[in-house]
Amino acid sequence: MTRSAGERHGCVGPGGRPPAAPGPTPHVRFHRLDSRPDGDEWIVGRLATGRFVALPEVGKQALDLLGQGLGAAEVGRRLRETTGDDIDVPDFVEALVDLGFVAEVDGRPTGSPPPPKPTFAKLRPRHVRWVLSPVVPVLVGLLIAAALVTCPPVPLGYRTLLWSPHGSAVIALGAGVGWTLLLLHECAHLVTARATGVPGRIRLGPPRPVLDNKKDQHG
Questions:
Q1: Long-range pairs for 168-173 at CB < 8 Å and ≥24 separation?
Q2: Per-residue pLDDT of the chain (219 residues; tens, 9 = 90+)
Q3: Is the pTM of this model over 0.70?
Q4: How would you write 83-152 as a 3-class SS string?
Q5: CA 100/CA 51 separation, integer angstroms
Q6: Are 34 and 103 within 8 A, CB to CB?
Q7: What angle do CA 95, 86, 30 make, to 5 degrees?
Q8: What DSSP designation does 15 have?
Q9: Which sign does the torsion angle of CA 123, 127, 129, 134 carry?
Q10: No. of H helices and E strands in the chain?
Q11: CA neighbor of 66 nearest in space, from 111, 41, 103, 21
Q12: 215 and 201 in contact (C-beta within 8 Å)?
């Protein structure tokens, strides 16, 4: 009933005990979940952890009924009445537990790992919501135009880049400028995501032979 948008992982409960296993007719309490329609499916997940799945319409109905506090047996009965199909709701609940969507099963914590801390956690949407204003790109355009008009032209040549006879100094400065611009670029993505309430994260990782700056933003 679910199709994971990322790899699945297990959970360990408090004290190293395994997480609460769903019973035959479990009642569940979910973490905060966000959803949006996507064609014939629904994209559902936790912004805090970046875990999302694609659910068919019947899966979204089951999720909503479970979220209302109904037990698995009652959810299965209602879905049978509306769709004519027998849905394995306990198996569906178990899949949701594995995804980290469920906080409690029959009143027992599932032991879901805490969500990773976002980059610049103290930066709130109210602090940066102004970046979404349509006035911002206009001001940036005016600033660039003013710089082009008022600044004297810079002569371009090979000595513009090879400014020093020491090659190591040229390479070091180029790398420093490049990484600084890359960081500013990723911070712009992060600020925009935070303005919409998405807890983005920036991290460094080596997915390729060279280091690559990676951002983790979902929503």
A1: none
A2: 544 444 333 344 444 444 455 556 678 999 999 899 999 999 999 888 888 999 999 999 999 999 999 999 999 999 999 988 888 999 999 999 999 999 998 888 888 777 778 888 888 888 889 999 999 999 999 999 998 888 777 777 777 778 888 889 989 999 999 999 999 998 998 898 888 887 777 877 665 544 444 455 555
A3: no
A4: HCCCCCHHHHHHHHHHCCCEEEECCEECCCCCCCCCCCCCCCHHHHHHHHCCHHHHHHHHHHHHHHHHCC
A5: 8
A6: no
A7: 35
A8: G
A9: negative
A10: 7, 9
A11: 103
A12: yes
Are residues 11 and 112 in contact, defined by beta-carbon separation less than 8 angstroms? yes
Identity of the amino acid at 116: P
User: How many other C-beta atoms lie within 10 A of the C-beta of residue 142?
Assistant: 10
Within 10 A of 47 (CB to CB), how many other CB atoms are there? 20
Task: Quote the tokens at residue 164.
Answer: 């020093």
Contact, 32 vs 49, CB < 8 A?
Answer: no
Q: What are phi and psi of 44, to 5 degrees?
A: -130, 140
Assigned token pair, 9: 């992982």
Q: In the numeric block, which tokens belong to residue 191? A: 């600020």
Cα–Cα distance for residue pair 90/190, rounded to 1 Å? 38
The total number of residues shown for the chain amounts to 219
